[in-house]
Design a protein that fits this description.
A middle domain of Talin 1; Imelysin-like domain-containing protein; mainly alpha; Imelysin-like; Four Helix Bundle (Hemerythrin (Met), subunit A); single chain; 368 residues; Imelysin-like_IrpA; Imelysin_sf; 72% helix; two-stranded antiparallel sheet; 2 domains; signal; 1% strand
Amino acid sequence: MNAYKRMLLAGFCAGSTILAFGSQAQAAKAASPKVDKTSAAIAAYADELVIPTYKTMSDNALKFAKAAKELKAAPTDAKVAEAGKLLLETRVPWELSESFLFGPAAFANLDPKLDSWPLDTTNLDAVAKNADSKSVTIDAAYVRNSLGAETRGFHAAEYLLFRDGQPRKAADLTPGQLSYLAAVAEVIAEDAITLEAWWAGSDKISEEKAKILEEAEIEPGKSYAGEFKKAGQAGSRYESNSEVLDEIIGGSKDIIDEIADSKVGKPYETADAADCESLYSYTSLVDSRHNVQSVEKSYNAISPLVAAKSAKVGQAVKGSIAKVFKSLDAIQGPLVKNLDKKEQLKAIIDSCKELSENLDKVQELLVK
């Protein structure tokens, strides 16, 4: 074969290889599923935000329940302080979850069961006295089945453990109160595990947690994250990703509106300490800050979708979130000690209302 023919053949082979490679690449591209940015954002929201938050909450709740049980068995000031510390550490992820109180939290009515306020302290004290007189035995089943939302959950435990922002003295706690605390703590742990199991799937939680639910005869529903991520498919109550986004945005709006109307708004209007949420541990403003962090995390999960449609709206939301944080940080000390700071409290309320309005704009952009 002469040099000219060899050159033609080499060129033909090279061209054929390039064409073949190009055809294979096009075929592979056609065969691979198109990346759905909305579905990816929803999956990240469920898998990287909601489930880890509830896992942390249930992990901490188990530690709190153990500490409350140990305190009941042998009360000391150090054990009261430790139980109080673990209660607050369990409450942090709860407050960080308050932008997603839809789904399992709503289905099982766990928001009021875990976090109702103001407390019915009259009834709570009466039940503890009945326990002291042995006319009633307080255990987890009694709390679950016989007590109303205003006498259980985080704030009941807070009332038993704290006064004026400080842990109580062990000598001030009666055996009935200690039994009450241990039972409430056990139910808080059950509720926290229920939230984790219902979102992640019962097969995704630890054996210890699964056993606790089994013994309490609690059966969470199927994986809610699965429903969330499969909108429009069989087995999901959501007909479209648009409905899921509506749920996410609505959850954030709900908690921001609650800060404006109740958590800060009501004490602002009444100047009554009894209207402050975490009255005994002095963590009302800390709670609200964690709520705003919850909204920020929820928004960050979907912010690329917003930015793709309107950079202006995206920037407005982030600016509003920063304003709420700044207004909360302007008050030094607990809310109950700052009810006379009308201007600063009004700034919190106004910044929350602005954020809520900007979340309305997000809803208009993303929800069809």
